[in-house]
Amino acid sequence: MRRTKILATVGPATSAPSRLRGLLGAGVDAFRLNFSHGSDTEHRQVLRRIRSEAAKLHREVGIVADLQGPKIRIGALAPPAVRLEDGATWRLDTSGRTGDTRRASVTLPELSRAARVGDPLLLGDGSVELVVERVERESVLTRVVHGGMVASHAGLFLPRAHLRTEILGVKDRADLAIGLEGGADFVAVSFVRGPADVRGVRRKLAQLDHSSTGIIAKIERAEALERVDEILDIADGIMVARGDLGIEVPLERLAFEQKRLVAKANSAHRIVIVATQMLLSMLTSPRPTRAEATDVANAVLDGADAVMLSEESAVGQYPIEAVGWLDRICRTTEEAAARGELSIRVAASSDPAPERFVADAAVELAEDLGAAAIVTPTHSGRTARLVATRRSSTPILALSSQAATRRQLSLTWGVEAHASPAHLSLLELRALARRILGGRTTTRPDAPFVLTAGYPIEGRPTNLVTVLDAEAPRSRGPRTARRAGAARRGSAGRTGRVARARR
User: Which helix (H) or strand (E) holds 243?
Assistant: First the structure.
């Protein structure tokens, strides 16, 4: 079982039902729809197809609706791409007129208020750099520091500016409605600046009666890095969006920021996705580069819940092969960690909630007993996520009657979510877990299960850890009794140590 999840972007190369089915077969756990591209009709069609193909395969597949957000772009150019020479001047205004080598329009009405003399401006992928020389009433005069080709509608980045753009524009609100109508499990919010942006999206989801939809804050602005702890308090997860983030912060700091963000998300028990250019060479090549393979492995070792494909699966020539390579690299890295050759980072947690200590106890007990699985009946998925944060090699089976919860857990490290009735006895839970694990060669037939639960009644926060024998006892002879007593003493010992640590 692969623990690190795979999130793949759907695009023209993969929107057909047969291609979606191929991606799922290769190992995709969840799909991303990029609302920056494609029509409303196409998005609705893809949403229906994903749900249909997942149902045919009896898979719990999550969907992430990634909104365009307040991205700043230049307008049209004539010709469609122009070369800016070092030292030349280039005027930016908000006129909307087609630009050329002397001037261009931008989609930021407050440009003159946002820019300051000396501020850097970056275009496209950041390879073309301008500096502000003069700010006028309705335009900004810049000088080209590092020239190059600039295409129509290229992105424009102002790393030092504090913009007051609305986090959900008209297009974003319309796209959000389409995503929710199609059953999106998460909304990815682009260009988040701070917690207020996440709160705004949360309020909008509540107004649309979709409060349970998860929010993934995309960290791609320098100012978001300064407030990531506050963002994590409100969001359900973050995406380390290395494309735009690598433009906003010095490139030499990008690896450090990735590790820092993953660690913070793990500590806060939030989903964290590492994205952008994971296997970019596979746009045109059937194999990744050595550097890309190393990059993916390092994301696994950092503790990422999921790794994401963007262009590789949306428009690439080898989308299914790209998923296959992600699967192989993640599995191999995780297996090496399980053997002790490497180590996956386990985040320290300061969460004082009792459920966190119960999750810690469950993992310790499962590892000591060589348990077949940690079984977590769950309504919201919180307990499963708490257990997953420990990055244990023991399988985590989340049993839930809530379809939305099961799909959202498709992006949580190490968790297998399965449908379950709302009310099950301990014997029924054990039987269901045994059926799920089935003929897996990695599971000993006599291995016990570790179970978390709420006691004394369902609906309470998780406050109990217990051990379920592999099979129901028919008769209890001396040997069986001794074994059961040892399991009980082990359970009590683990819980006791966690309780003392808490005090």
Answer: helix 242-248
Place of tokens 């989609």: 107
Residue 8 pairs in a beta bridge with 31, 309
pLDDT value at residue 439: 65
| 123 neighbors 156 (Cβ within 8 angstroms) | yes
pTM of the model: 0.86
**Alpha helix (H) residue ranges in 409-447:** 426-437
Catalytic residue among 4, 9, 213, 276: 276
CA dist 424 and 430 (Å) reads: 10
CA-based max dimension of the chain: 91
The catalytic residue among 44, 51, 59, 73 is 73
Q: What is the DSSP letter of 266?
A: H
Q: Which of 103, 193, 202, 218 is catalytic?
A: 218
Q: Exposed e or buried b for every residue in 106-132, given b needs 16+ CB within 10 A?
A: bbbeebbebbeeebebbbbebebbbeb
In degrees and rounded to multiples of 5, residue 113 shows phi and psi of -85, -30
Query: Which sign, positive or negative, has the C-alpha torsion 462, 463, 464, 465?
Result: positive
Neighbouring C-alpha atoms within 13 Å toward the C-beta of 195: 8
Token pair of 58, please?
């009896």
End-to-end Cα distance, the chain: 36
**Where do the structural domains in the chain lie, given as residue ranges?**
5-69+167-338, 81-157, 354-502
CB 43 within 8 A of CB 33: yes
Q: Considering the domain 5-69+167-338 in this protein, what is its CATH number?
A: 3.20.20.60
Report the distance separating Cα 63 and Cα 65, nearest Å.
7
Confidence of residue 475 (pLDDT cuts 50, 70, 90): very low
- 73 has catalytic annotation: yes
Place of tokens 């496209």: 124
Known active-site residue 59: no
The answer as to CATH 3.30.1830.10 being correct for domain 354-502 is no
Q: For residue 337, what is the enclosing H or E element?
A: helix 319-338
CATH no., domain 81-157 = 2.40.33.10
Do the domains spanning 81-157 and 354-502 agree at the CATH topology level? no
Cis before 79? omega within 30:
yes
Q: What is the spatial distance between Cα 60 and Cα 44, in angstroms, rounded to a whole number?
A: 19
Q: Which of 19, 32, 221, 390 is catalytic?
A: 32
**Are 12 and 313 spatial neighbours (Cβ–Cβ below 8 Å)?**
no
Instruction: For 198-248, write each residue's pLDDT tens digit.
Output: 999 999 999 999 999 999 999 998 889 999 999 999 999 999 999 889 888
Q: Does 276 qualify as catalytic in the annotation?
A: yes
Whole-number average pLDDT of the chain: 89
